[in-house]
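S2.1 Query sequence (Glutathione-independent formaldehyde dehydrogenase)
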Amino acid sequence: MLAVVYKQNSQVKVEEVEDPKLEAPTDCVIRVTSAGICGSDLHMYEGRTASKAGQVFGHENMGVVEQVGPGVVSIKKGDRVVLPFNIACGTCFDCVRGRTEACLVANPDAPHAGYGYAGMGPYRGGQAELLRVPWADFNCLKVPGQPGDDLEDDFLLLSDVFPTAYHGTELANVRPGATVAVFGAGPVGLLAGYCALLRGASEVYVVDSVPERLAKVKEMGAIPIDFTKGDPVKQIVDLRRGNPLIMGALRPGEEKALGVMCGIDAVGYQSRDIQGADAHGGREKPTQVLEQLVELVNPTGSIGVVGVYLAPDPGAADENAKQGIYPLPWAKVFDKGITVGTGQTPVKRYNHFLRDLIIAGRARPGMIVSHRLPLRDAPDAYQKFDARKDGYTKVILKPQLSPKARA
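Output structure tokens follow.
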């Protein structure tokens, strides 16, 4: 089969690799119809992880079941399914508590597992024609319709981006009427703002610098904040202070809470120093977003961190950062009584009801998709997505569009 294979820093190729096979009675094999390129894939692509040459990328996957093992009872050949990026056994101590992002069985080396990602077990990714799915009954989410229909993009995003965005709003304690700031308007940040609106937030600010992303923020009904125009914390506070309705509702002393109650970090360790940054980047400063959120979030507010922080990071600027060690303003976190939640998303906790929001027409996360490309275009797509150029906001690879794909 054809697959996207990591070769070296900033280089992937589409190559023939061995077809996957059933390895356990509880496995299935799917024919992939859509596979997303995730911002997290860029960490490996840029050489910022321990990925090795030959790894097949892709943890955002959906398709049609081709084969099932004799132990699979609820999924059958021909079913259309989408897969959580977390691979989970479904029965270990963490899985039975709904913490499928921390399965203790699926990865012999760590308390988490996933498709095609460094440090997340021996599993190939789904940026390929075929994919093996362990514990198929548990890990497959059945979806209606036919491949390539109007809901294909929406359903694919149930694999990672949509649940991760929703998880960010959970960690940040977004409730009806909440004030929310999301830092980062990549796919997860855009959908975190969208999920905050779905949950009834009164104000949602989304911070970024890329014009296409900021335009999408405005289109979905949130307030875009361009950090190249000045300190985003000050911009948000000034906007709130300049609203006579907000100011007219405050009692004396409440002007101390002109920040927001809920903050979401959808950037992670590759955040950029706002000093001297332009629309497409700037000097890396891993703590930039967290520092700004601690400043912006009101006393007793909450911060949800779904942007990735990882170690080892061979490309980091100093020895501490290479081990994921960063200085943070914890005294201010303590003084303000801010709640901080973080970690990988337990996709299974959310994907059923997010699927049903899509089916009911209440949610259309696929609005963020910018490109749908054949598998052969993956090398070019990675390069452009990594450069944040040409409107590459969210890219979906379609193996069936490749002229080399099998009938």
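The longest strand covers residues 28-37. The two ends are 12 Å apart (CA to CA).
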